[in-house]
Design goal:
The structure is a single chain. This protein is an alpha/beta fold and 275 residues long. The chain is built from eleven helices and eight strands. The chain has an eight-stranded parallel beta sheet. Strand 5, helix 5 and strand 6 form a beta-alpha-beta unit. Helix 1 crosses helix 2. The two termini are 27 Å apart. Bound molecules: 6-hydroxymethylpterin-diphosphate (HH2).
Amino acid sequence: MVMGVLNVTPDSFSDGGRYLDPDRAVEHGLDMAAAGADVVDVGGESSRPGASPVPEAEERARVLPVIAALAPHVRVSVDTCKAAVAEAALAAGASLVNDISASPELWRLAASAGAGYVVVHMQGTPATMQRDPRYEDVVGEVFGFLAARAAQAEAEGVREVWVDPGIGFGKTPAHNLRLLRELPRVVAAGRPVLVGTSRKGFLGLLAAREGAPPPPPDERLAASLASAVWAMACGASMVRVHDVAATVQAAVLVGATRLGEVRGAPQPAVDGARP
Ligand code: HH2
């Protein structure tokens, strides 16, 4: 599955300012749905490294009209850490709470609304998380955290719990790569896994040519697709992305390759096709 990113913010690292106008945000959300997004993730507060918090009233005013307009057409998740925003978003039609703070208050709201909940791992807060993040054993600590919080959320009544290693949330490029390499381990734990690498800084660093600066966020499509394909091939059930159409095309390829056939097509036509 593909989750399309819709940031109704002035300062998100990639699409900041593009969808602050509610009509443009709704149009973009509908475009992502038409391009094949299974979920549109609406956020009103950037969580990029160094971002400053947004007052609750401001965040609500940004996301609620957009959620209400999109929810009849596509599944909507709300990307928030604030209980009041999550509660209002659920009332406006969101059915998934995407909470990078992994807070009991928010999963309890999801439980009582019969909504899903995404547990995300983050070390620190967006304001400080990229200042020298450290782990003894990043894979063990992150996957252990996800399992513990997910079990708590399930015990408190959430029926649909996703886990997300939180790529870039208090992690160096090496931490991100270790987590991506070991994704099959968290998949094997049995809960659906969500992964968000799209356009993130470590992809820019890895994609930079020698002696040249990293490509800006909207020139990281190839690296974003490569990491999304990796995650899907490792068994992640959903990827969170800015470039929905391209990622849906990649997801179809991963799914068809896993099946070894084209859905609905007669086998001989596929076997006999020219390369
Ligand atoms: N990444 C971002 C925000 N929310 N949620 C989940 N579950 N997983 C992620 O990896 C994730 C997330 C950061 O990306 P973006 O929304 O594009 O930027 P910003 O936080 O600057 O708005």
